Amino acid sequence: MNRNQHIILAIGGIALALILFVSGAASASALQDRMKARLPEIVALKSKGVIGETFQGYLDFVGQSREGADMVAAENADRKALYTAVAQKTGATVDQVGSRAALKWKENLGPGEYFKNEDGTWIKK
């Protein structure tokens, strides 16, 4: 299995696990479709070192470049919607759900991709 297939399966699994908690199949499906559509661009920006995952479960810019800013904002908005739905269903906070998701995002980083720790430092896998 190549790297992109692995990433797609991992992100799909994370999204599916979160979506299972979202009420309303239509909205869950729409979120999943949007996230899947953005995935190639997210993978490319991560590979280039433009963006990385954060300990909070969101994307952020590693350096000065803001390439893909609209896509990053849209992805983060959809992630927040998913985390909020999960939090409402489980009694956890949105921050707790995001932090748990961040662990999965971190596990699935490819070589050379970045993760932002709680202290604000970026680590390169």
Structure notes:
The chain has 125 residues and is α+β, with helices and mostly antiparallel strands. It has one domain (3-124). The protein is built from 4 helices and 4 strands; from the N terminus they run H-H-E-E-H-H-E-E. Strands 2-1-3-4 form a 4-stranded mixed sheet. A hairpin with a 4-residue loop joins strand 1 (51-54) and strand 2. The chain is globular and about 35 Å long.
Features:
4 helices, alpha+beta, 4 strands, single chain, 125 residues, 4-stranded mixed beta sheet
Total helical elements? 4
Strand order of the largest sheet: 2-1-3-4
How many E-type strands? Answer: 4
> Distance between termini?
20 Å
Structural class estimated from helices and strands? alpha+beta
Q: Can you give the mean pLDDT? A: 87
How many domains comprise the coordinates?
1
β content, as a range? 5-15%
Order of helices and strands: HHEEHHEE
- Principal-axis shape equals globular
**Runs with pLDDT <50, length 5+?**
none
Q: Radius of gyration over alpha carbons?
A: 14 Å
Multimeric status of the protein: single chain
